[in-house]
Structure formats: structure tokens, C-alpha cells
Amino acid sequence: MTPLEFHLPALQVAAPMLLAPVVALLRPRGLAWAATLVASLMALAIAIGLTQGALSGESFSYAMGGWEPPYGIELHVDMFSALVLLIVTGASSIALMAGKASLDKAVEHSRQPLFYSAWLLVLSGLAGILVSADAFNIFVFMEISSLASYIVVAGGTDRRALPAVFKYLIMGTIGATFYLIGIGLIYMMTGTLNLADMELRIHDVADQRPILVAAGFITVGLALKAAVFPLHVWLPNAYTYAPHAVTAFLAACATKVSLYVLLRFDFVVFQQNLLGHEFQFAAFLMPLAVLAILAGSAVALFESNIKRLLAYSSVAQIGYILLGASLVSLAGLSASLLHMFNHALAKGTLFLAVMALAMRFTRLDLRHLAGSAQHMPWTMAAFVIAGLSLIGVPGTAGFISKWYLVSAALEAGPVGFFLIAVVVIGSLMAVVYIWRIIETAWFEPPTEAGEVIREAPVTMLAVVWLAALANIYFGLATDLPRELAAGAAASLLGQLP
Question: 134 exposed, middle or buried (CB, 10 Å; 0-12, 13-18, 19+)?
Fold first, then answer.
């Protein structure tokens, strides 16, 4: 391992964080966006380097300040964190590349340096959560990313984002507080904050009531941050009223980072040591996952605003991720982690296409988008491809993870047939709400027959199609996400007795 490779875990967080205050000082028009994009691409390159190392079997462990863990702060990257790092840095880079024109329209010029500085803090905070091997520092990075997220969500000109952000702030603060209470209880009983050391020490006090209470606080707090049904009430408005590029960024990765921490704690720290936690985990999450798939899809069927429709679809897709994890099997967890990656591709592309539509349409209700495909055929064609991936049509990335999920459910015995039925019903409901948009855009006459509407800007359209084609590419060449998901699942389940 070269000296540069050794420092990659620290650089993954430090690069965007150190550039954030610099970006806030850049005043020439467009320079703040360019610097933010360079920082995001740098973070993506670091994530790719960490992923290559993880796939080749290298272990990335970095002791901050030279203090060896568990006494010092440790950064650690394995296949699981590498998978989600790719999602976070890729989503940020794609959203920035496609979103310059949209953000110029949504964010006042004088406020753009501060807006892009907050964007880099979101990126740095999410990356810090993923590389941190210290439970308290996960909380610190969680707060950095959350506070900056509130700024970028409310950073546009739509004043409806303000009450949405207030609800997001309240719910996020409750979730973070629950997590911190749980960590405090564990520290009180074990005297350590390092996750690997905690895994060893918690075994001696696993039957103590503070540890059981801590497991409950941490699970509920992270479920709230991840918008697990029915704790999802902050998500629809936050996604709907945020600037379109921000929605494309956060919808692809924000909840998945919280799910990462939830799965890391429940599989590595708790399930190995707490008697019966495996059953409790499945019994708690499986019904919520089923309800999320059915309820989220059902609400999406009746939504007329496209962004709100896709937001409720995200609630359902989080249900698919939890459904695989609740099977507590290698196949189920592999399907869950694979769906994290594939859903990020599909939903990110859908919101990018919505961003392109918003360049020409002031309102995103279905009735105002009638016949939009006649004016913007390339944008709507990309939307169709991403919609097919979200449904799980063969040949797209979404099909692979749903196929793995169905295969895992078959191994679960009689309950597996019920879960397969839920997956099929949820996918059919996705067909209906995606078809509503396609039918309106392609087959209904334009509401303003005499109005001339041009296609989205070429630079934006190129990035949207890059994301759309990625849905097809990873539906055919599945090796990278499949190997990362399988390796991550094996690592998590390897801790089980």
C-alpha cells in the first residue's frame, strides 16, 4: 500500500470539508459551482480507489493522529462502506454536473457560495459517517451532514421548503438524540466508543438492562433518520420543495447512509451479543418493511405532483431494502445491499429527469405536464428507462436486486411466499404510478397547444442520459455492485454465531 493509499480514508472526509470554507469565499459567477464539482469528483475518485482496494482484499484502517484504536479515533473502510461511499460521491458528482443551470435558477447568485459550501459539508458529513469506526464520531458527522442538509434543502426560492425543513429538523434532531442516548448508555456499560472494541466488550454486559435500552434507542433513532415507515413524515415535503438538484443528490444517498449505520450496529454490535436480538430485529423490521412497500406505493398511486409521487416511492423502496435485511440471511442481506445501489441509480435518474422538466415547466403537476414528451422527448425517454429500472424490468439494474430479493424469500420457508407476493404487488403498483406519468407525458395532448417548449439544455441532458444508461449497464454487467454487496453481507453476517 502506497503512502497516498494509506491516507485515503482521511482524505475522503478532509478534501470536501477543507474546501467548503474556501468555496464560501468565491464570488465570481460560476466559480463556486466549479470548485464544488472538482471537490466532489475528487471525493468520487478517492471512493473508487477505496473500492478497488476493498475488492482486492486490502483493509483500510487509519488511526487519526497516530493514536492506535481503541484509545484513538479510527477510520475504517470495508466493502460495505465502500459500496455506500460510491453511492454518496457518485450522486453528488452527477447532481452537480447536471444541476448548474437548475441551481442558477433556484438559488440567488449572492447566496450561491454559501449554498455550495453547505453542499460540500453534506458530502463530507455523509462520507465521515461511512468511514468512521467510532460511534460518537458517527454522531458528529451525522450532525454536520444534517445541519448542512437543512441549508441546501431550504436554499432555493420556494418558500414552502421552510416548513418542510422545520419538520425535517425536528424529526432529525429527535433521531440523533435517540442515537446519542443509546451510545451514552453503551459507553456507560463498556467504557469504549470504538465499534470493534464495543463488539468485544458488550458481550460481558449483554444481559444488562442499559444495553437492551440502548439497542432500542439506537434502532429507533436511526430508523427515524432513514425514514423507515411510519417514521417517514419528514421525507415527502423535504424532497418535494428542495431545489431539484438537491433532491437528486439526497434522494439517492441520504437515507441509505442512515440505513448503513442501522445495519452496522444491529448486525455487528447487537446480534452477536444480545440473546434473541436476531428474532427481535426480524420481527420488528419485517412488518414495517411490508407496510412501507404497500403504503408508500399506495399513496404514490394518487399523487399528482411528480416529486411528491417519487418521494413516496422512496418510502416503498426503503421497505424493499429493509425486507431483505429482515430475513437475516446471506441472500437476503446481499439483496438488500444490492438494492441500495440499484435504487440510488434509478431514483437519482428519475429526479434528474424531473430537474430537466422543471427547466421548461414551472409546475410539476401531472395536468401541467400533459404532452411534455412531444416537446422534450429525450428527457422523457430517460425518465422511462429509469422508471423501468425502478419497477424492476429485466435488463435494468432494478431487476437484479428484486430477483435476488425474491430468491432470498424463497429460502425463508412459508413466510417467503407471502413476502414474494408483497414484492410482486409493490412492483405492480410501481408500474401503475410510473405509467400515470408516462401516459400523461406521451399520450395526452399538451395543455398549451400553441406554446413552444424546447428540450432541456444539452449539458444537462447528457448527464441525465449518462445516469439512464448506467441503469442498463449495471442491469447487464452486475459484477461490481454484486461483489460489493455479497462481500459486505458476508462481513456483517460473519459476526453472527
Answer: buried
Whether 279 maps to a domain, the answer reads no
496 touches 276 (CB < 8 A): no
- In the chain, the amino acid numbered 439 is E
Q: What is the 3-state secondary structure (H, E, C) of 418-452?
A: HHHHHHHHHHHHHHHHHHHHHHHHHHCCCCCCCCC
Record the cell numbers describing residue 307, joined without a space.
416529486
Q: Is residue 309 part of a domain?
A: yes
Q: Are 432 and 312 in contact (CB under 8 A)?
A: no
Per-residue pLDDT reduced to its tens digit, 351-401: 999 999 888 888 888 888 888 888 888 999 999 999 999 998 999 998 999
Q: How many CB atoms lie within 10 A of CB 361?
A: 18
3-state secondary structure of 271: coil
Q: Which three cell numbers stand for residue 187?
A: 459507553
Give tens-digit pLDDT for 431-477.
999 999 999 888 877 765 545 578 888 899 999 999 999 999 999 98
Burial (Cβ within 10 Å: 0-12, 13-18, ≥19) of residue 34: middle
Q: Diameter of the chain by CA atoms?
A: 75
Contacts of 448 (CB under 8 A, 6+ apart): none
Measure the CA–CA gap between 128 and 141, rounded to whole angstroms.
6
CA distances from 210 to 73, 137, 266, 331 (A): 24, 21, 16, 33
d(CA 317, CA 320) in angstroms, rounded, equals: 5
Q: What are phi and psi of 361, to 5 degrees?
A: -120, 130
Q: Identify whether 371 is part of a domain.
A: yes
Report if residue 135 sits inside a domain: no
**Read out DSSP for 211-268?**
HHHHHHHHHHHHHHHTT-TTS-TTHHHHHHHS-HHHHHHHHHHHHHHHHHHHHHIIII
For residue 61, the SS3 value is strand
Number of domains in the chain: 1
Residue range of the domain that includes 354: 287-488
* Cβ(450)–Cβ(299) below 8 Å: no
Cα gap 213→227, rounded to integer Å: 21
DSSP string, 144-207: HHHHHHHHHHT-SS-TTHHHHHHHHHHHHHHHHHHHHHHHHHHHHHHS--BHHHHHHHGGGGTT
In 251-331, DSSP assigns E strands to none
Place of cell 492506535: 68
For residue 84, give the amino acid letter.
V
